[in-house]
Amino acid sequence: MNWVYRGRCWRFGDNLAIDGEIMPLRFALSRETDPNVLRDFLMSEIDPDFPKKVKPGDIIVAGRRFGQGNPHIQGFLGIRGHGLGLVAESIPRGSFRNAINAGLPFLAPCAGVTAACETGDELEVNFETGLFRNLTRGQDHQYQPIEPELREIVAVGGWANHVRKRLAQTTTA
Amino acid sequence: MGQTISEKILSRATGRPVKAGEIIYPKPDLVTCHDWYVVNFDKALQEFGVTKLFDPSRVLISTDHEPVAVAPASSERQKRVREIVAKYGITQFYDVGRGGLGHIFPIEMGFIRPGMFVEAYDTHVTNYGAVGCLGIAFVVEVSEIMALGSVWMKVPETVRVNLHGKLQPGTSMRDVAQKLIADLGDELIDYSVVEFGGPGMIDIDISGRHTLCNTPLEIGAKSALVEPDEATLAYLKPRTKEPLELIKSDANAVFRKVIDYDLNKIGPQVAVPPTPDNVHPIDKALGTPIQHAFIGSCASGNFKDLADAAAILKDRRIHPDVRLYVTPATQEVALEATRAGLMEIFLAAGATLTQAGCGPCAGGRIGAMAEGETSINTGTRNDPRRLGASGDVYLASPLTVAASAIAGKITDPRSMLAKE
What angle do CA B392, A18, B187 make, to 5 degrees? Predict the structure, then answer.
């Protein structure tokens, strides 16, 4: 798995709601879990053109409590569907699990990261080491990467693949 | 370094000493799931090719979200649940009329004890903290637990809350539990276990402890528990033959924060829509007309909650514009309330009694609100549509809900207790 993403920064503020702002609620209600379907609606209630503007390797940088609300996984699957990375000042518990389970490379919590960049900056983020480089500003920031046990789940592509891997280990053990 | 109660419980469940912040795969003593998710976890297991549960004797299933099947599809689902329970050989199955609300009856039956670790589908399993057990919800990941007997978690930090003083007349633990989460705030509580103790605990019975452990997860707590004490032992001894241990945090345990909280200062509270932590003194909502009222749920459906409501409803009639549903949490609560004459008081007042379980709080499948109506109730949450339709939902104590149902508008229960 490639842990280093290089691309444009897309910066958002605090308290982005998982239902509505990050992904329209109807996909949670219909239990849609295909990243290729969900990608076309990512952040569309904030900016209808957002899904067309982003490219794989781009990085969403968000403020506090990214993904707040009733923890639905669809928003994180939509981010993964575009091949984007995520760096957030904080992610509440239920959404943190969903980000792992969606197989999304991310860094959180990263205090002050929204002050370290703005939309359009060229970023390079290493999700394995926590190194956040703003190439436009020529500044580096070091954050705590997510734990190795959780990177393992992300590396295999998320929850379902990880469960399959654990099941296979149980039968061979 | 010392350990908190939660670190001790998780150390035992992991088989080695653990501390806050570590990622672990602890082994639960029990896994619970309710009627509405059984078909889903079975489907997930089939997709994974799993045909056996990790340990069917450690799984408990309760029919509580929709105990009385109200549509042909519900009857079919109940039948499927029974088939799935039989297929996996699950022995602890409490169908309609047997147990009641799965966050409460396992405590009454002595299955839940201090120091135990329970994993669950449903979020309000934190009620098990009432007797010093750590209950944690994993929602859809319960399928992984059913198959493999564990799932990852981060050992949570603990916020210790020491209660002082006594409840004032016209207030209940529900007022305290609601006010407390509003005062603590989501920033402090996120991803923590709230541990209750202190000198004020001596006057708080197991019913009140259920309520205390029920609310913190609404603002992001991983769980909540009460430090077990003599009251815990007195409650559990007649209910179990298993050894009981008074587990406590070490004197040098590390807490995220220690908070002292004064019960004397708390009057009737109301959680104003649309969130359970939007809590204000009742004055904020006094006089708001209501059409729908409900007493019950895992937050406030125990005998003491019903007795509080009955004290207000005795020799009074519910307002003509209001329908009041009363749902005892469990079969045992219903039986005890019947023997104590509470059901007679509810019926004489014009209330509607429903089968033990979650009642209208489970998405309004039973006794829902209609569009544009206003409800005051003792359910767990007040999001729009929690009770079926998109009207305003106010949360309050059983005393306040009963007083409001009589007056037809949100009312301070102290005005109806004055004659004593």
Answer: 80
For residue A76, give the CATH number of its domain. 3.20.19.10
Domain count of chain A?
1
Q: What is the pLDDT of residues B284-313, one digit of tens each?
A: 999 999 999 999 999 999 999 999 999 999
Contact A143/A31 with Cβ under 8 angstroms?
no
Q: How far is CA B408 from CA B320, B394, B402, B411, in A?
A: 8, 14, 10, 8
Q: All domains of chain B, ordered by start, with CATH? A: 5-241+249-263 (3.30.499.10), 269-417 (3.30.499.10)
Q: Do B147 and A163 touch (CB under 8 A)?
A: yes
For chain B, the distance separating the N- and C-terminal CA atoms, rounded to the nearest angstrom, is 52
Residue B95 CA to residue B84 CA, distance in Å, equals 13
Q: What is the dihedral of CA A152, A156, A159, A163, to 10 degrees?
A: -90
Rounded Cα distance, B279 and B175, in Å: 9
Alpha-carbon distance of B378 to B293, in angstroms, equals 9
Which residues, including other chains, have CB under 8 Å from residue B256's CB and lie 6 or more apart?
B157, B158, B159, B188, B192
State whether B190 and A92 contact (CB < 8 Å): yes
Chain A nearest-CA distance from B378, in A, is: 20
Q: Do A159 and B152 touch (CB under 8 A)?
A: no
Complex ipTM = 0.90
Per-residue tokens: B47: 């997709």
pLDDT tens by residue, B116-160: 999 999 999 999 999 999 999 999 999 999 999 999 999 999 999
Residue of B nearest to A94 (CA): B220
Q: How far is CA A173 from CA A170, B6, B16, B146, B353, in A?
A: 5, 31, 21, 19, 53
